[in-house]
Write a structure and sequence with these properties.
heterotrimer; B: 288 residues; MetI-like fold; globular; transport (chain B); membrane (chain B); transmembrane (chain B)
């Protein structure tokens, strides 16, 4: 059973197509993210689901029923806004009670429900606080509580962590996931930050230029990207462009621009000999030294220490700069800038995608 | 170090002196006008004959205090009546204009926007005569063709209100639009998303947000209406507001300390109102 | 769709009051005085149309001299208000400490809330023959008899500057306030002298405020009535006074309307010229809250 279904949704603003034939289903109780760079149409998509924009064509169904003719204030989807949009002229309790009052519920019920939801988000007894007295994380939870008290079918979240500082953002990611689990409500989360999407979601849709590139679990997207855009956008990657030399059994031999040849898995079925491709290899798949099937030579340019995600920058003989991530700082490999080194990785970790050139 | 300030101590000292002189210049006539309200003399002039409150409260000739001067009180009453009415109207119209120009897109918007500002730069005297002329043309036309007498189109309270409304609306529109521009539209969307009807959104979210601006627009309009002279002079009938009454008194009777008393009263009154509006805006600031 | 209908309806509801206001209280009345100014009374209830009122204006030197004098003095007042107000605005926006800034600004605004009439009355009390200055001068012994300081052009200009200088300071403070001190620092850092920094950085930055202030001040001065009459007396020769006289004293609406049109056209022309010369627009200056 699906809580939210979108079918061939299109939104045009004049000649510009913001959302181009997007279809997806969100299963009940799951955490679904839409990940894409700014301007890819994800906000427009969300605003159509909330009812603030009318789609040019296509259908939106919630619990199987089309909501296209339902005005925004009657839809069973609630939204957490980018800057939260807590009402500054009301205190916490009034903010949360707002939707219940609109429904015309009686005072006693409202009081009880507000208290209960505040309890669930871990801020019991804060009804009479002013919004301005709350910290960033608390505001976040109030914004969610304000929606959840209405028991929506779907909760939309429009980059709600964007305004928070880095430390708090890390904590809120985990907290959001827990809240979703606790409320057992379907969350539709929009973000341009891939780490947020990967960490929290059951499923992620990667959106680019108004279209979905790929829908899948975070692991699938990371390990098995279907397009060059997904390979480049999800996680870090080294990326080299080149030309296909030969193709056999799903493996491509690519001559990299500037010199050198590597073999990688064919990422799509449009790859043909002589065509232009981009090869993606993740830094953590590359290590210093030899011993694996792909080996290239280069010179260490600098060491970038960043704890678990430390990197070595290697200038390859063909002029490209490569980030090397594996076994960098565990002491087993000691290199210093200027040193001649070899870098290597397994063929299975390289992936080639056709580029339009 | 403040690079914007002059660096030599002499120049700094000179600059401060200039500021003091300027403030003295600002205060001088207000001080003079207020001071003689308390002088126990028949003329607002030196010598100082001792402190008195007669010019406010005395009820005997020849010193009739302002609170016993029937014509001045009548003028004050008219001023209050006009001020409250015209400010309320101007705030209502200004709110509409603010929404029109901040929320709606329509062809010719820039031209209309300039039209909205224009009343502020038309000299008040001309606004006054043009409305007088126009209203009289309509009144004469009605009288000649239909034999209807619409007296409210002749100089009087109604025309004064129209005349003041014509330029106060620009002021209130600008004040309210400035606040509306800062409004985060997602607050309205959030309310809508939580199930509120459009009307409810307006009443519970947008208008409460605009409240400080509505209030200060009202105060500004009221004060400007209260002290307006040029437009009012052309449109006034038998019910003259306070400034016109004072002017008449000044020209016909000459200045007496009762005018100083009225001046003092006006200064204190409008000062307090202005202060109130500042306080309301200040109080609101941290929340936004 | 239903939603666009709601949008259209609310647009009409918002536009209607605006249209009524502008049409009935601004445009039609202005056309009305334009119309009246073109008409000449030849008998009871009989009129002819033509430019005779304008010809009458031009052929009577006292009229157009008054207009020119009003314009010239208004420009003088505007220039003086700028000269007096700019240092004050600069001090408030750039030099005063955070806390005293608000207080200073408020102090500058106080006279704004007091009626023209009260302010003019205050000056009368100070400057007339039996006024404060005259008495003080006599007491010190600088002069032997009473001195009349009212009813001369210098006093009128001084009084007008007093009345309008605040409208110069307010827009100046709000533009100068937006200027980052680092602009001035950068100016010095790049080798500018005090004068060049002021001329090349501060003044251009403040230009919208200067223009806005000048427009408001000029219009207010040219349209002012009380201050020139009360401080200048019967000989003040102010144009609004002529308009009032034609309308109220002589009951000659035709020529009063003509004067009104002329004042409006003339002041609009000066404002237009000012905007043209400085490359600003009305919306970008006056309406900048």
């Amino acid at each position: 059973m699906h809580d939210l279904q979108c079918e061939s949704l299109v939104k045009r603003f004049g000649a510009y197509t913001a959302v181009n034939s997007v279809s997806f289903n969100v299963p009940r109780g799951s955490f679904f993210s839409i990940l894409g760079p700014s301007g890819c149409g994800k906000t427009t998509l969300m605003r159509m689901i909330a009812g603030f924009e009318a789609p040019s064509s296509g259908d939106i169904r919630i619990k199987g029923k089309s909501v296209l003719s339902t005005p925004p204030n009657k839809r069973p989807v609630k939204m957490v806004f980018q800057h939260l949009a807590l009402f500054p002229m009301m205190n916490v309790g009034e903010n949360i009670a707002y939707g219940l009052r609109c429904r015309g519920e009686n005072k006693a019920d409202i009081g009880g429900k507000v208290a209960r939801v505040l309890d669930r988000v871990g801020l019991p007894g804060t009804e009479h606080k002013q919004v301005s007295q709350l910290s960033g994380g608390q505001k976040q939870r109030i914004a969610i509580a304000r929606c959840m008290v209405l028991e929506p079918d779907v909760l939309l979240l429009d980059e709600p962590l964007g305004a928070l500082d880095l430390k708090l953002r890390e904590r809120m990611k985990i907290e959001l996931k827990q809240l979703q689990h606790q409320f057992e409500t379907t969350f539709l989360y929009i973000t341009h930050d891939q780490s947020e999407a990967l960490l929290m979601s059951d499923n992620v849709a990667v959106m680019n230029a108004g279209q979905f590139e790929q829908i899948g679990s975070p692991q699938e997207l990371y390990n098995n990207p279907k397009t060059g855009f997904v390979a480049g956008f999800v996680g870090d990657s080294n990326r080299w462009s080149g030309r296909v030399v030969s193709l056999s059994e799903g493996k491509v031999r690519v001559a990299i621009d500037g010199g050198g040849e590597v073999t990688a898995l064919a990422g799509d079925n449009r790859i043909a000999a002589g065509g232009s491709v981009e090869v993606f290899v993740r830094p953590e798949a590359i290590s210093i030294g030899g011993g694996r099937d792909e080996v290239l030579g280069g010179t260490v340019e600098s060491l970038l220490f960043n704890g678990a995600s430390s990197r070595i920058l290697v200038r390859m003989d063909n002029g490209h700069l490569v980030e090397v991530g594996q076994a960098v700082m565990d002491g087993s490999v000691t290199v210093s800038p200027g040193e001649k080194v070899q870098i290597c990785w397994s063929q299975l970790h390289g992936r080639a995608f056709t580029t339009a050139r | 170090m403040n690079v914007a300030a002059p660096q030599s101590p002499f120049l700094q000292w000179l600059y401060r002196g200039y500021m003091l002189a300027f403030l003295a210049y600002l205060a001088a006539p207000l001080f003079a006008a207020g001071m003689f309200a308390f002088n126990d003399s028949m003329f607002p002039a030196l010598p100082w004959n001792g402190f008195t409150l007669d010019w406010f409260f005395s009820s005997t000739e020849p010193k009739i205090g302002m609170f016993h001067d029937r014509r001045l009180l009548r003028g004050l009453e008219n001023s209050l009546y006009i001020g409250v009415l015209v400010s309320a109207l101007a705030v209502a119209a200004g709110t509409c204009n603010a929404f029109l120009f901040e929320r709606k897109q329509f062809p010719g918007k820039n031209v209309f926007y300039i039209l909205m500002i224009v009343p502020l730069v038309i000299p008040g005297v001309i606004l006054g005569i043009s409305i007088l002329v126009f209203a009289s043309m309509i009144a004469n036309g009605l009288e000649e063709t239909f034999g209807i007498e619409w007296d409210f189109l002749r100089p009087g309270l109604f025309l004064v209100i129209l005349g003041q409304f014509s330029f106060l609306t620009t002021i209130t529109s600008l004040v309210i639009a400035a606040r509306l521009r800062k409004f985060d539209i997602s607050l309205e969307e959030a309310a809508l998303n939580l199930g509120a009807t459009r009307l409810r959104v307006l009443m519970t979210v947008t208008l409460p947000y605009l409240m400080p601006a509505l209030f200060s627009a009202f105060v500004v309009a009221f004060l400007v209406s209260f002290e307006n002279f040029n437009t009012t002079l052309m449109l006034v009938g038998s019910d003259a507001p306070l400034t016109i009454t004072m002017y008449d008194r000044m020209v016909k009777v000459g200045s007496t300390p009762v005018l100083n008393a009225v001046s003092f009263f006006l200064m204190v009154g409008s000062g307090m109102l202005a202060l109130l509006s500042v306080v309301v805006q200040k109080k609101d600031e941290p929340a936004t | 769709m239903a939603r666009t209908d709601v949008g259209k309806l609310s647009f009409i509801l918002l536009f209607a009051p605006f249209a009524l206001w502008i049409a009935l209280l601004i445009i039609l009345p202005q056309l009305g005085i334009g119309y009246i100014s073109l008409r000449e009374k030849v008998g009871p209830g009989e009129y002819t149309f033509g430019f005779s009122n304008y010809v009458a204006f031009l052929s009577e030197p006292i009229y157009w001299n008054t207009l020119l004098r009003t314009a010239w003095m208004s420009i003088l007042v505007t220039a003086m208000a700028l000269a007096v107000g700019f240092p004050v605005a600069y001090y408030i926006a750039k030099i005063a400490q955070r806390r005293s800034r608000a207080a200073l600004f408020l102090m500058c605004l106080i006279p704004l809330w007091v009626s023209d009439l009260v302010r003019a009355f205050g000056w009368i009390v100070i400057l007339r023959e039996t006024g404060l200055v005259s008495s003080l001068l006599q007491k010190i012994g600088l002069v032997s008899g009473p001195v009349e300081l009212l009813y001369n052009d210098a006093t009128v200009v001084m009084g007008l500057v007093y009345t309008v200088v605040l409208f110069m300071i307010v827009p100046l403070v709000s533009t100068l306030d937006g200027m980052d001190n680092s602009l001035i620092e950068a100016g010095y850092n790049l080798g500018g002298s005090r004068l060049t920094v002021f001329r090349r950085i501060v003044v251009p930055y403040a230009m919208p405020g200067i223009v806005a202030g000048c427009i408001i001040v000029f219009m207010l001065t040219a349209g002012s009535y009380l201050t020139p009459i009360l401080l200048g007396g019967k000989n003040s020769m102010w144009f609004t006074e002529q308009i009032y006289e034609q309308f109220v004293t002589r009951y000659n609406w035709e020529s009063g309307a003509t004067f009104g049109v002329l004042l409006l056209v003339f002041t609009s022309f000066v404002v237009w010229l000012g905007l043209r010369l400085t490359g600003q627009s009305l919306a970008s200056t006056v309406a900048k809250d």
